[in-house]
Every structure is written in C-alpha cells, then in structure tokens.
Amino acid sequence: MKARLSARARREVLRIDENWRTRADHKTLFVDELEAMLTKLGRDSNLGTRYDALTRERILRTRLRRSQYYVYYTMNDDEVVVLSVWSALRGQQPRL
Asked: Which of 4, 71, 90, 5 is nearest to 33 (CA)?
C-alpha cells in the first residue's frame, strides 16, 4: 500500500521541517522520522490508534516519538492518506 500526504498535511510538513532545519543539532530529525513512519504505514496501516470514534471516516493517529508530532491518517482501497501532522505538545487537536 502507498502512503501519501494530503495538501493540508504537505503544507504542515513544509512548515514544520522549515522550523526543524533552524536547529543546529537535529536538522533532519522530523523529516527522517516522518519518512520512516510513512514507510511503516505503507506496510501496516493499522499501526495507529483510533482518533475520533464520532466521525464516519475511520481516522487513526500515530506518534513520531522523538520529534513529538502526531500523524493523523485514513485509508482507502489502495493508499494511506495523511490528513494532518500536528504537534503532540499542543493543548488542542486538529479539526479534521
């Protein structure tokens, strides 16, 4: 199965990556961790936990442990679609 970023997730990833690249010690940590997670999701899309049981669409999330971001995603017949990438440190959740 293929994993891809939605337009929203792509914008979020670009913004987050730009921020991480300003760090002297871990410039590529976020993008490296995200790429590894997208590969894992392509192999096993059930890695995450159910995010919102109130929606009709099955939305799951998984955490990038070192960079501390959540990856929110859904699945269709032939791909995993990342809906949002959101800081686990925020006091709120994304509106999906």
From this structure: 71
pTM of the predicted model as reported, rounded to 2 decimal places = 0.89
- Rounded Cα–Cα distance for residues 12 and 44 (Å): 23
CA–CA gap between residue 17 and residue 36 (Å, rounded): 15
Domains of the chain (ranges, CATH numbers): 2-87 (3.30.2310.20)
Give the whole-angstrom CA distance, residue 3 versus residue 69.
17
Residues in the chain: 96
Task: Give 2-59 pLDDT, tens digit per residue.
Answer: 999 999 999 999 999 999 988 768 889 999 999 999 999 999 888 888 877 556 678 9
* Alpha-carbon gap, residue 88 to 7, rounded angstroms: 20
User: Is 6 buried (19+), middle (13-18) or exposed (0-12) by CB count in 10 A?
Assistant: middle
